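Researcher: I've got a protein sequence and the SMILES for VHF. Could you write out the 3D structure of the bound complex as structure tokens? I'd like something to compare against our soaking experiments later this week.
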Amino acid sequence: MDIRETLKDKSRIIIKIGSSSLTHPQTGALDLTKLEILIREICNIKNMGKDVILVSSGAIAVGSRSAGFQRKPKKLEEKQACAAIGQAQLMMIYQKLFAEYGHMAAQVLMTKNTITNDESRRNAYNTFQELLKLDAIPIVNENDTVSTYEIQFGDNDTLSALVSSLVGADLLILLSDIDGLFTDDPHRNPDAEFIHVVESLNEDLMKMGKGTTSSVGTGGMSTKLSAARIATSSGADMIIANGKDFHIIHKLLLGENLGTLFLGKKDHTFSLEEYLHSINK
Ligand SMILES: Nc1ncnc2c1ncn2[C@@H]1O[C@H](COP(=O)(O)OP(=O)(O)O)[C@@H](O)[C@H]1O
Ligand SMILES: N[C@@H](CCC(=O)OP(=O)(O)O)C(=O)O
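Model: Sure. Here is the predicted complex with VHF in place.
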């Protein structure tokens, strides 16, 4: 059987959208046409009886545009203020659009502490389980406004993989401004070649992921590959695909050969506890 065929059977799906996929490149303002499509795609997955969690970036990009910044703010307190403005705007739009299709959006803001502290992690786990039981669509972002080092070191690629591991998702989809993983950053190296499937993430592959040149993105490909390591070793498949047209979501779930597919490990080698121990050392 084609490995992509198995994507039809996924039942707990995390979708991560990067800032660059939510905003107009010329102005940085939200692309409302694209958002309408995103919400329809997600509601349709819910209507199939599957669980969906959306990890949405964009708070700083949207807030900084509203606050009149010409480019991504550099100072920490500026980013935090912009995140506060932008997150509220994003949630207002998500609430409205999901409600139009009869679905409930729920905001979950997390910090690194939510994952590293045993009690907070258990709380977060219980909340996710309950939200999914209630058929709500959790919309996750880092709590950028209050968590200083999150903004400096944090990125939603890693966060989405940790959420994927926490809730036992079977598929993580990262939608970005690029078709998937190339052998090198194609914006800098025109000879870079596209990689369709990654069966095992070795060190050579990890080195292919470079940072970002985008004016709104944060992690680039390197954080997406770290996310792939976490997600696949907790048993989930992961796809990096282009978020320029969100119709790609149902195409991926029908098994179309789009994006880079990272195959989940069958032996579930990832331990959230061990990972937390390693980042706290
Ligand atoms: N090996 C690679 N393959 C593909 N893209 C790469 C690679 N290395 C670095 N990149 C860069 O990563 C960018 C995507 O990351 P980013 O800008 O953070 O987007 P997002 O906001 O979607 O998270 C691409 O536009 C590309 O320039
Ligand atoms: N939490 C931040 C985004 C962090 C992040 O990883 O951004 P991106 O590289 O656009 O996915 C925000 O909402 O602005």
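Model: The domain at 9-280 is CATH 3.40.1160.10 (Carbamate kinase). The longest strand covers residues 12-17.
Researcher: Great, I'll pass this along to the crystallography team.
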